[in-house]
Amino acid sequence: MIEIKNLVAEIEGKRILDGLNLTIHDGEVAAIMGPNGSGKSTLSYIIAGKEDYEILDGEVLLDGENVLEMEPSERAAAGVFLAFQYPLEIPGVATMTFLKAALNAQRRAREETELTTPEFMKAVQDAAGKLEIPRDMLKRALNVGFSGGEKKRMEILQMALLEPRFCILDETDSGLDIDALRVVSEGVNALRAPNRSFLVITHYQRLLQYIVPDTVHVMANGKIMRSGGKELAEELEANGYADYKAQEAA
Amino acid sequence: MAEIAMMKTQAETALADLFARSKSLLPGDARSREDAFHRFAVKGLPHRRVEEWKYTDLRALMREVAPLAAKPDAAAIEAALAVESVFAAAEPATIAFVNGHLAKADAMPDGVAAVSLAQALAEGHPLLSKLGAVSDAEGNAAYALNAAFMTDGVVLHVTKRVEGRVALRFVTTGASAVSTATRVLVVVEEDAAISLLETHESANGLAHQPNDVVEFVVGDRAEVAHVRLNAESDAALALSTVTAHLGAQAAFGSRNIVAGSGLSRHQVWMTFAGADTKGAVRGATMLGGSQHADTTLVVNHLATGCESRELFKTAIDGRATGVFQGRINVAPQAQKTDGKMMSAAVLLSEEGTMMNKPELEIFADDVQCAHGATCGELDDDLLFYLMARGLPRPEAEALLIESFLGEAVEEDLDDAIVGEALMGIVEAWLKKRG
């Protein structure tokens, strides 16, 4: 279970999160929707451990443990995974080398035995096949020269390999055409499991037609303004975010 | 008018004494050695007011002069060479030098004739007329000192496309610090090709003072792949020079990896004398503590249609200092020159320093020349991305540094075994860094 309690954060004196509360149960897919600048991406970065933010209050509990007190790599080993909105290009680091380093670093941190090369190769190739990732892409430098869709598929490949407890998808639909959106969504859906939770951040309802959420939360001005079921996404698509912006201003 | 004589430093006086004591014992023509020492002595040790030594003030940094190393005995040679070479997996035909003297030589592959420099000097070998083919180096202090003191080395005459690799291994050992001066002349005839690996190691942590020169004279359509590794002790003061005189339609590549020495200065003069030749000089330098490493490069385009590529990467930790000075000169007749030079440094600590000085001097009008220099820290966003995937910070840093240096180490190196050996050096440095 993930419990975000009264999270308050600033960047350079500007309040981005303002007492955010959210609980995501095991196996639940929670979607956060909200207008630009509502703090959605900030929330994902703060949970993953980016240093740029000052956290003034609150906690993020993963199975009762506050991940905010951990290093980013410790959070990853504990099961937090952020699929980046803009996955970074790392020239000179072969994708395979990176995947193996990441997987084995997490296994070491959890005091598990590292995978042998044949075990690792099999795991990667199985996951890559499902995501329609060609083998030669795995030999290239990580994300370098990859299209937007390829980068997002690579994020989901990493998610599949690392088997996290809690996956955050930060606008995974941005920059994807319909075919890529379908492949990526199928990849995510295949990872849905009773002991795995998802936080899907998006502007648009479209992604949620592919990855159907259990709960939908509207975020504006740094907090959750309203929560509901998947029908809330459809309502937002019809009415926009004006109500929530107005509600805050009032 | 009275001339103002510069005061000689202790090291300059010691060098003069050392030369006076040694010159009659060194092989070959004493006169040319005296001329060379004179070229050094009139200017003395270069200092920061000499432009090409601005960032490496040898006068200030070279306080003492170690005695010239004597020829080691059999036991010392055996001990020095007992450690496996970095390039052992590449199974090169190796010529080994201990304390600057020829110690052991494998049979050379077909197409390579090797004669020790001491013997060549004593006999007046005809190929020695090719020494100094790149005349710009002549007045340089390190080059002139090497010409005055050169004790041994090898003359390699390459007459065919050579299968396999040739290695030159230089090991310095002994109970106290010594200086060495070795000279290698590699004459590659037309259409011939060679892959040459060169390593410099100190078997102990003493402040040795090696001064090495390798001169390449590359014929038309000939190919050279040269990899040099400086793995001297962190107390060593290492001066090294590579000159390359390139014929037409040739391909030359020289790569220098700096993984040792307290103070090192690597100088390269690459001259394109024939048309349509490709030349590449690369380097990766890893520094920590109070190390200082200088790479100084002069590329002379004298012929039409040549391509030069220079790529240098420097990783600087601790209070270390990196220096890159690179100049591309394009003569009026060298039309259609294509030159690119890049130096990039990553600073891994608050106290590291990098000095970059790229220069272009172009007298032809139909050329493409570019240079760039960068200096910065590791990218925080990249680090976060790697850490968010589970890599602890030191591992994430190591991966980024390895990829940063890897470009200069492995780019265009068509030799996977050598590439792996060199990346092993990088990994060992990263491990030591912790």
From TrEMBL, chain A:
Pfam family, one: ABC_tran
CDD domains in alphabetical order: ABC_FeS_Assembly
GO molecular function: ATP binding; ATP hydrolysis activity
Keyword annotations: ATP-binding, Nucleotide-binding
Keyword Nucleotide-binding in annotation: yes
Span of domain ABC transporter: 2-246
Entry keyword Nucleotide-binding: yes
UniProt family annotation: Belongs to the ABC transporter superfamily. Ycf16 family.
Protein name: ABC transporter ATP-binding protein
UniProtKB/TrEMBL annotation, chain B:
Matching PANTHER family: PROTEIN ABCI7, CHLOROPLASTIC (PTHR43575)
Protein family (similarity comment): Belongs to the iron-sulfur cluster assembly SufBD family.
Upper classification of the organism: Bacteria, Pseudomonadati, Pseudomonadota, Alphaproteobacteria, Hyphomicrobiales
Positions of the SUF system FeS cluster assembly SufBD N-terminal domain: 31-163
SUPFAM superfamilies: Stabilizer of iron transporter SufD
GO biological process, one term: iron-sulfur cluster assembly
Domain SUF system FeS cluster assembly SufBD core: start-end pairs: 173-404
Name by which UniProt lists this protein: Fe-S cluster assembly protein SufD
